[in-house]
């Protein structure tokens, strides 16, 4: 015979300390099925190939070392790599590239087209290069094609990809300052390159607003400061637009949960 179970069970004392079980956030990829985006992948691959084509033309038809020294070519290489990787991830339904990387590529492409059209190709600009071009030095043929691809077509296509094919709210204000490290490094590279090259060599300074021999260091550093402030304002504007623009992707995500219809 066993002892009867008492009707009134005493309450157990609480376990001292905090519970070892803590709530954890479930990543969206655990419940949301990945969605392939073949059209987005094809468009981004086209942008990457176009940027790579423009860079290749510049390298083949000119001095490769001089071509690689241009901000336009360097930003074009970065954009080509980012778009190629983004295309592969969109095709295979993998996680997107970090927004810090894609935002940087977008900012540099935007800087490229704005500086070219507002400062270099604008006859009213004090740094216009149109007035010094002659029939012999003006870009023609393949050079003219690469010039338009890298300064106009590719940046415009990248902006359209951001506006129409990228979910909003991914850029953050804390990313803007690190994005400016590359333009700052390019400024130092351009000035050091100009000092190492002998005076009188063509294109010793690749951009007229960085030409120390023509304007002096005081003016050049002032120009760099104004451009830096403009680039920071542009980066901030991109972040603000990213958080206010509508979501271009309206498809309903499929989750891993299936609700059974009521019976009856």
Structure description:
The chain has helices at residues 28-31, 38-61, 64-68, 71-92, 99-120, 141-165, 176-179, 181-196, 212-215, 217-244. It has ten helices and no strands. The model is unreliable at 252-259 (pLDDT under 50). The protein has 264 residues and is mainly alpha-helical.
The largest β sheet comes out as:
none
Write down the overall geometry.
Answer: elongated
Poorly predicted regions: 252-259
Radius of gyration: 28 Å
Strand content: under 5%
Roughly what is the average pLDDT, rounded to an integer?
85
Total of helices:
10
Overall SS class: mainly alpha
Distance between the termini: 50 Å
Approximate helicity band: 55-70%
Number of strands: 0
Order of helices and strands: HHHHHHHHHH
Quick recap of the structure?
The chain has 264 residues and is an all-alpha fold. Helices cover 58% and strands 0% of the residues.
Task: Supply the key terms.
about 260 residues; mainly alpha; 10 helices; about 60% helix
Per-chain topology:
Layout (H helix, E strand, L loop, with lengths): L27 H4 L6 H24 L2 H5 L2 H22 L6 H22 L20 H25 L10 H4 L1 H16 L15 H4 L1 H28 L20
Helix pairs in contact: 2-4, 2-6, 4-5, 4-6, 5-6
């Amino acid at each position: 015979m066993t002892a009867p179970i008492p009707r009134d069970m005493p309450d157990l004392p609480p376990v001292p300390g905090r519970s070892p079980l803590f709530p954890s956030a479930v990543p969206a990829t655990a419940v949301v099925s990945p969605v392939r985006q073949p059209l987005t992948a094809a468009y981004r691959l086209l942008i990457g190939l176009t940027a790579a084509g423009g860079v290749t033309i510049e390298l083949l038809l000119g001095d490769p070392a001089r071509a690689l020294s241009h901000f336009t070519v360097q930003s074009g290489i970065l954009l080509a790599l980012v778009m190629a990787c983004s295309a592969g991830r969109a095709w295979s339904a993998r996680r997107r590239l970090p927004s810090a990387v894609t935002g940087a590529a977008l900012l540099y492409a935007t800087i490229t087209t704005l500086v070219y059209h507002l400062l270099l190709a604008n006859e009213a600009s004090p740094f216009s290069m149109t007035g010094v071009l002659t029939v012999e030095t003006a870009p023609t043929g393949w050079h003219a094609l690469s010039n338009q691809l890298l300064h106009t077509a590719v940046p415009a296509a990248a902006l359209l990809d951001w506006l129409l094919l990228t979910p909003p709210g991914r850029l953050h204000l804390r990313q803007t300052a690190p994005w400016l490290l590359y333009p700052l490094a390019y400024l130092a590279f351009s000035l050091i390159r100009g000092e190492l090259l002998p005076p009188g060599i063509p294109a010793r300074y690749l951009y007229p607003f960085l030409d120390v021999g023509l304007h002096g260091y005081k003016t050049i550093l002032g120009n760099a400061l104004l451009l830096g402030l403009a680039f920071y304002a542009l980066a901030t504007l991109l972040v603000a637009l990213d958080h206010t623009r509508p979501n271009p992707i309206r498809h309903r995500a499929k989750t891993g949960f299936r609700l059974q219809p009521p019976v009856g």
